[in-house]
Amino acid sequence: MKKVASALAVFSFTGFAFAHHGIASLGAAGLEGPGSPLETSSSITLPEGKFLAYLKLDYADFKKYTPQRDDETDSYTFWIYGLGYGVKPYLSLYLFVPYYVKKLEDNSFNTAGFADMMLMGVLGFKYDEGLQLVPERESLDDLEDWHFTIYGGVSLPTGDPNIRDSSGNIDPGMSLGFGKPTVTVGATSTKQITDRLTFVADTSFMKFFEYTYDDGTRYQFGDEFRFNTAVAYRLFTQPKNQLRTDINVELNYLNLGRDKENGVGLKGTGGQILYGLYGVRLYYRTISAGAGIKIPVWTDLNEESIQQGSEGKENYRFIFTFSVMF
Fold first, then answer.
1. Which of these CATH numbers, 2.40.160.40, 2.60.40.420, 2.60.40.1190, 3.40.718.10, describes 6-325?
2. Which one of 18, 71, 109, 190 counts the least CB within 10 Å of its CB?
3. What is the value of pTM for the model shown?
4. C-alpha–C-alpha distance, residues 320 and 322, integer Å
């Protein structure tokens, strides 16, 4: 039975990112076997003893509702740098370091810098006549089994939450950190339906905690619940040249809780968004690169008319990922 050489496996981080911050989640894929989407997390873990270097770009361009150049949000650019390590075939650990660029239309309050780092761990399972931890090696037939992960992470408050504009005011939405750790938990499932088609689903919850800013304001961002589904279709593979190309179609659901200021819920925050994402992923040896366009296809926002610059009010989001395993 043919074995999948770990040297050919390309670990391809997927990501979940949103208007005021960005975070990467996890997934892996090789030249053969299950595909890996761009945003929806897959369930294939990093091989034991392997490192993974990772880069993601999430660029959000927002709709404008006034003709003049004013303080409407123009764009957010999230860069995420990551390093992963396969402790065991079923256990991987990661460190993510984000870099944010946030711009207003009139440039009256722009911020840029490193944000809160995140530590994350992933535990992988498969189902083959019962649930078991992911073994050291799997054949191509084994990779067609259902695979699952559970994961958890915590951010470290390394970014500056107290950036002030030219008038000395603090806007939590323009900050580079949350002031307190955030906690993320999630789970994924992956099934290779045919030799070309892969189905992936994941769900996650992120918890934010209240932080008191230097101006005395107590602020807490709304909690976030996500449920994503995706299909990845392998267009072609050239084993001799170690090349593979996939196309990806995804639906990403996001439920945002209402932000709170001094213990009171804020108008113009929170709601529900369904995104559609259409992308392509390329593999070459131990390198993977993916790109796609993500757009809101349905929204149900709280006080939608005053949520310019929030999730669900994008013209589009451009997603790019690059990873290499060594």
1. 2.40.160.40
2. 71
3. 0.90
4. 7
